[in-house]
């Protein structure tokens, strides 16, 4: 049996603090899980993650299956040993790529209906690289064009080889542009795959079932009921999450009241405002590439005390010329290594010169910023001051 | 006056151990100075340099003048503050770019006569971007094509703004393909520039004069005599250094006996065998992009105990498929962070996937390897076992 437990220690409205325990350590929730797609949080190594205090990471089944290959990771002792990382590791199931490499590419959208910003290689090609059958997802590799079939059994086998602590059932992430009928057919399939995933998964790993159903109340409720009825260790909520953040909140309002005390993971979400809105609605964990991807593109988070607000998305763009001679750190209130050691001017110089050091320093800041925010969210739940904190930020 | 002293503490033949003292700390020589072209050792930050134990770095006048601009660095408190680095900093004078962007590009050669491997941008363009006048070097920026004139006075002013501890006189680095006559004319100019550099340099900085003269014994001797006669704090030896390593050794054999006890820096040299050959001939400091550049291109150093030898240039190429499942570190004898934490298989995966984390981990290894080798060289001089160590390696 998987070494796994989840204990809720405090609540404040629907928001809650929990302790998620695995063989590789604990996660105090709510938590934003840093994304380590290819067994590396881009630009960082495991010492950096330790310094930042990352409690866990999420790696990507599809990408690791293709590179370096899950059997190689297994031979090398699994992801923890491969990455030399001693914290719980989540893996997704590969189901999201059914969308991002399929409909997402075809329709050039992301799962909130915005412009697609998924895999760069895929983005450039624009040729649809995934399609769905009843058995699974048929992929064309983004690396060499080779063909692969991801069935629930195969996804479980890959995730077993990767040796993560928390795995996901294979699902089909539909498009915000899919209609009711398609979304319903996909849901029937996702539910069947959920049961197959449960049947085939490695018992040493904790498995989360994924609720789908698009922006259709009836389907989301059906899915919540069905997935909750199965013996999953946790529940994940997958996209499509409507066409706006308001839609997403509504979807959570439908789903969450139907869930019991198992941990709840919201897949692929994690901008600053999302964290407030979704923690408030009872979400325990998130994963999102935004903090790391934005960092690499020059977007650095700042707190309200330093001018961060909804309208600037809580960030500055370090490429801005106004920072050329700015001696201040990114954020005076931030205690991360980057802010303790370097000025905006130095970071701007590194960014403008496309210097490798920039990417790491920026990533360290953005992740530290987010993990600090998560800590403040937890403290505000504990102190019953969540609304006050939310008001300060939003 | 510059806070600067150099004290020789041990000798073994012509090889010697020294302590070079500056306001920002000491360097125990012989030492290979890591190159921080644009105020960053590519992929590392100052904490990494501290962890590696880097005693100093060398930054590039030409590149920093163009980006972010020396006046900006000055406003930000100089290079030490800009980089948050508390060790002595060397800057070159920009004279090497007279070659690499001029003759080097035109003739597609490096200063030992091999294929030019200088600035990537320049390499791609192949248009000559520098030419020499009696007043100075006329450059076209590799970034925006803008025109700039680097005179001795200007080079001194830039280096003063950068605030480095040890600066270089402006020189003209000639091409290995230049004949006697041109090299002699260039030498007269370099000697005049040496005096002008001395006249205009910031007295708070220690200044090294540069010996030129190509692969011409008479000119090298003339230059050694002239540069030695001036009140420079140290002596640097510039290229062209002939067309082979043998030529380079011969050039050192002509020059070094003519120098007194001031510190001797060999510009732009630093492969493993060079360090042995040149330390043996009395060189105190080196600077070379090889360890960092090779690291980024997959070339990782290994010691003789791990199979390193002249024929494989003391390195493995991590891209090699044989490393796909290799659980061992790059070099079992290496104590660097990368070797303590990660397998060749993990590094190969990161390299093959072009993951940013690779560049830093590889750079940490190669620099640590070189700095450990320098330490062993010093210990062998102290213990009078230099020849034994050289035999073990070469």
Report on the structure:
The structure is a homodimer of 394-residue chains. Chain A has 394 residues and is α/β, with parallel strands linked by helices. Chain A folds into two domains: 32-288, TIM Barrel (Alpha-Beta Barrel), CATH 3.20.20; 295-378, no CATH class. In chain A, 42% of the residues lie in helices and 17% in strands. The first copy, chain A, contains 16 helices and 16 strands. Chain A has helices at residues 46-52, 61-66, 70-75, 79-83, 95-107, 120-125, 152-162, 180-200, 217-229, 245-255, 272-280, 290-296, 337-341, 344-352, 356-382, 386-393, and strands at residues 4-12, 15-22, 25-29, 31-33, 57-59, 89-91, 130-132, 137-140, 147-150, 166-168, 206-211, 234-237, 264-266, 285-287, 299-301, 315-317. In chain A, the strands form five sheets. A six-stranded parallel sheet of chain A has the order 4-14-13-12-11-10. A three-stranded antiparallel sheet of chain A has the order 1-2-3. In chain A, a hairpin with a 2-residue loop joins strand 2 and strand 3 (25-29). In chain A, helix 8 (180-200) packs parallel to helix 9 (217-229), helix 12 packs antiparallel against helix 15 and helix 15 runs antiparallel to helix 16 (386-393). Chain A is globular. In chain A, 56% of the residues are buried. Mean pLDDT of chain A is 94; it is low at 116-125.
Q: What secondary-structure arrangement, pairings included, does this model have?
A:
Two copies of one chain form a homodimer.
Chain A: E1 4-12, E2 15-22, E3 25-29, E4 31-33, H1 46-52, E5 57-59, H2 61-66, H3 70-75, H4 79-83, E6 89-91, H5 95-107, H6 120-125, E7 130-132, E8 137-140, E9 147-150, H7 152-162, E10 166-168, H8 180-200, E11 206-211, H9 217-229, E12 234-237, H10 245-255, E13 264-266, H11 272-280, E14 285-287, H12 290-296, E15 299-301, E16 315-317, H13 337-341, H14 344-352, H15 356-382, H16 386-393
Parallel strand pairs in A: 4-14, 5-6, 10-11, 11-12, 12-13, 13-14
Antiparallel strand pairs in A: 1-2, 2-3, 7-8, 8-9, 15-16
């Amino acid at each position: 049996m998987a070494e796994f437990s989840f204990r809720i220690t405090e609540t404040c409205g629907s928001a809650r603090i929990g302790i998620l325990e695995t063989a590789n350590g604990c996660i105090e929730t709510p938590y934003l899980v840093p994304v380590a797609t290819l067994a590396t949080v881009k630009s960082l190594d495991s010492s950096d993650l330790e310094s930042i205090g990352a409690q866990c990471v999420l790696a990507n089944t599809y990408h690791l299956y293709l590179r370096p290959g899950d059997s190689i990771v297994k031979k090398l002792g699994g992801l923890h040993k491969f990455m030399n990382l001693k914290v719980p590791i989540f893996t997704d199931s590969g189901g999201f790529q059914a969308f991002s490499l399929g409909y997402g590419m075809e329709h050039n959208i992301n799962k909130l209906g915005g412009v697609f910003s998924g895999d760069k290689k895929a983005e450039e090609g624009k040729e649809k690289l995934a399609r769905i059958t009843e058995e699974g997802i048929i992929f064309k590799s983004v690396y060499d064009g080779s063909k692969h079939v991801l069935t629930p059994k195969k996804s479980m086998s890959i995730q077993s080889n990767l040796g993560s602590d928390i795995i996901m059932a294979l699902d089909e992430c539909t498009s915000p542009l899919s209609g009711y009928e398609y979304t319903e057919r996909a849901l029937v399939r996702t539910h069947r795959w959920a049961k197959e995933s449960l049947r085939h998964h490695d018992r040493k790993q904790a498995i989360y079932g994924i609720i789908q159903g698009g922006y259709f109340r009836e389907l989301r409720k059906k899915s919540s009921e069905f997935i909750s009825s199965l013996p999953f260790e946790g529940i994940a909520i997958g996209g499509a999450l409507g066409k706006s953040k308001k839609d997403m909140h509504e979807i959570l309002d439908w789903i969450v009241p139907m869930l019991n005390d198992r941990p709840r993971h919201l897949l692929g979400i994690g901008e600053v405002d999302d964290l407030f809105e979704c923690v408030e609605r009872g979400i325990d964990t998130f994963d999102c590439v935004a903090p790391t991807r934005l960092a690499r593109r020059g977007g650095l988070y700042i707190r309200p005390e330093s001018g961060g607000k909804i309208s600037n998305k809580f960030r500055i763009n370090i490429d801005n010329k106004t920072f050329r001679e700015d001696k201040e750190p990114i954020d005076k209130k931030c205690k991360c290594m980057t802010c303790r050691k370097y000025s905006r001017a130095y970071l701007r110089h590194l960014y403008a010169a496309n210097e490798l050091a920039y990417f790491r320093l920026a990533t360290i800041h953005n992740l530290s910023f987010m993990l600090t925010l998560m800590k403040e969210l937890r403290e505000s739940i504990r102190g019953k001051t969540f609304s006050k904190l939310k008001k300060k930020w939003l």
